[in-house]
Design a protein that fits this description.
This protein is of the alpha/beta class and about 525 residues long. The chain has helices at about 1-15, 65-85, 110-115, 125-135, 150-155, 185-200, 225-230, 235-255, 290-295, 315-325, 350-360, 370-375, 380-390, 505, and strands spanning about 45-50, 90-95, 140-145, 150, 170-175, 175-180, 205-210, 260-265, 300-305, 305, 335, 365-370, 410-420, 420-430, 440-445, 460-465, 470, 480-485, 495-500, 515-519. Helix 1 packs antiparallel against helix 10 and helix 1 packs antiparallel against helix 11.
Length: about 525
């Protein structure tokens, strides 16, 4: 396996030519051009949407009704752009630095939304983002910055709401910054309360933990917690155990409430050095982030290593993650597309396109882009290339095959009504066994019957929340036959419900003007 991945590494590194409140309707899908590459039907196409300092969104605080509308419209435009690029999963930054993207009884709402800590912009940003993502067939994962609490100045700006003023023993200061020390059991209790609040209140699809590591370039001040709880272990092993215990506790908090919510982390891109490739000091292992162990113990549903590198610093280290996961858990590498901006780096678009191709060719479960603005801005034509070469059709997210439960039942009573260039497809909901059962639907269309749902080019729309869909042949290729499948919270798909073959429609599809076909 390793030899095969390294051969592909050499191949892809050869020089190549450049190739609420407001409710916003999702952008219509356009007729796709002919496929240049065979696309997988199942593939995570993720993006990190950063709210820290309003980097991706929002650009300005909302201090009144006009500001609220402007802020919401801005997010809708951003999500429309992501939908055009085929994105099906948004990591929405929900906790930044001891502040949040929703009103909470635990920490203040971030000032980027309302202009001051705790001030409401007139709506709930997290709720709005989840709803708008779901309208567009995207999952929304709450992205949580776990241990950093910000600079001394940022803590002062939070006033009495700052965690550094609450008297918690687990809040420590080092080099002008505050952190949570995971060596204290109380730290786990505090973070679990935040995770429980998010899981209880919001229809999230996942929670991703960022900065789930001991910080770099400082001497971390955990002498007190180590003396109290170290139990004679070497400090390095003790720190590793602290993060493992914290992840186990947070995972349990979520899974006891909503077992379908995916738990992921975005570890440092290089786990450790490799025999022929030096990783330097900035590795997950060195910062006690034993993500390989967490994968082997089943503590992660996804792993999204931050591989913001190129060449020898990218390909062999991605191959290492894939070998570790062995296909049992999705590996979704994060690509540093911000380096396409000349103010950030000197990357050429060909580098990113090769990385996407390599990931798809070697068994990655998908790709993540850091960050949203750099994709939507179409830096060096990246968004256009992604749309043309990698995202011609929608894609389903990797199913949680390791989760318990049955494949969902298919829907019932498929009805197809033709009216000129428009076709209305409707069905009855599948039998439900609770919140985790089938709650959305995937629609397929083809010119052959029965519709082959294994072919990605037949996939029209994913995660449809209603039990009806209007197929517009002025925007999408005309199709004769339709099928619909149930899609549950674990991303498991049912067998399809096929429409019956309408013989009279085949003879002359437009002569009757209106034709209804039922199953």
């Amino acid at each position: 396996m390793t030899r095969f991945l390294l051969l592909l590494f050499l191949l892809f590194t050869l020089p190549q030519a450049r190739a609420d409140s407001l409710s916003c309707p999702p952008a219509p899908l356009q007729t796709p051009p002919p496929a240049l590459l065979r696309e997988p039907k199942v593939e995570a196409r993720a993006v990190w949407l950063t709210t820290l300092y309003g980097l991706d969104w929002p650009k300005t605080p909302a201090t009144g009704e006009a500001g609220r509308l402007r802020q919401q419209e801005e997010l809708c435009r951003l999500l429309d752009g992501l939908q055009e690029a085929g994105i099906n999963c948004v990591f929405f930054q929900t906790r930044m630095r001891n502040d949040l993207a929703y009103p909470s009884g635990i920490e203040p709402l971030s000032p980027v939304f309302g202009g001051a800590p705790g001030r409401s912009p007139g709506y709930d940003p997290l709720l709005f983002c989840i709803e708008e993502c779901h309208k567009r067939g995207m999952e929304c994962h709450a992205w949580i910055v776990t241990l950093p609490l910000g600079t001394v100045q940022e803590q002062k700006a939070l006033g009495r709401q700052a965690l550094s003023r609450q008297g918690y023993p687990f809040v420590v200061r080092a080099d002008g910054r505050y952190y949570i020390d995971p060596g204290y059991p109380e730290a786990g209790e505090y973070l679990a309360s935040l995770v429980a609040e998010i899981t209880d209140r919001y229809d999230i699809d996942g929670i991703q933990f960022d900065y789930f590591r001991y910080p770099e370039n400082i001497s971390f001040p955990d002498q007190r917690s180590y003396r109290k709880y170290g139990s004679g272990l070497p400090r390095s092993l003790w720190r590793e155990n602290n993060l493992t215990a914290l992840l186990r506790r947070l995972r349990q908090t979520v899974k006891e409430k909503k077992p379908w919510v995916k738990i992921s982390i975005c570890p440092l891109g290089k786990y450790d050095g490799l025999p022929r490739y030096d990783a330097g000091g900035f590795t997950a292992k060195r910062h006690h982030q034993d993500a390989k162990k967490w994968l082997s113990e089943g503590l992660l549903d996804w792993v999204c290593p931050m591989l913001y590198y190129r060449g020898d610093n990218f390909y062999p280290f991605l191959a290492d993650w894939l070998e570790t996961a062995s296909g049992e858990r999705p590996v979704i590498p994060g690509l540093g597309i911000y380096f396409l901006d000349p103010r950030e780096g000197d990357w050429d678009i060909g580098e990113v396109l090769r990385q996407i191709s390599y990931g798809r060719s070697t068994g990655c479960a998908g790709i993540g882009y850091y960050r949203a603005e750099f994709l939507v801005r179409d830096l060096q034509g990246l968004k256009s290339e992604v749309e043309r070469r990698f995202s011609l059709y929608p894609a389903l997210l990797p199913p949680m095959t390791w989760a318990s439960g049955e494949t969902p039942a298919p829907p019932r009573a498929l009805r197809v009504e033709y009216e000129g260039q428009h076709t209305l497809i409707s069905w009855e909901a599948a039998p439900s066994a609770g919140l985790s059962a089938a709650c959305t639907y995937n629609l397929y269309a083809s010119d052959t019957w029965p519709v082959d749902i294994s072919r990605v080019e037949n996939l029209v729309a994913v995660r449809i929340e209603a039990t009806r869909y209007e197929y517009d042949a002025t925007l999408l290729p005309p199709r004769r036959y339709f099928a619909v499948a149930s899609y549950d919270r674990y991303n498991r798909e049912s067998t399809p419900l096929q429409m019956e073959r309408p013989m009279e429609w085949e003879k002359n599809p437009h002569s009757a003007g209106h034709l209804s076909v039922e199953k």
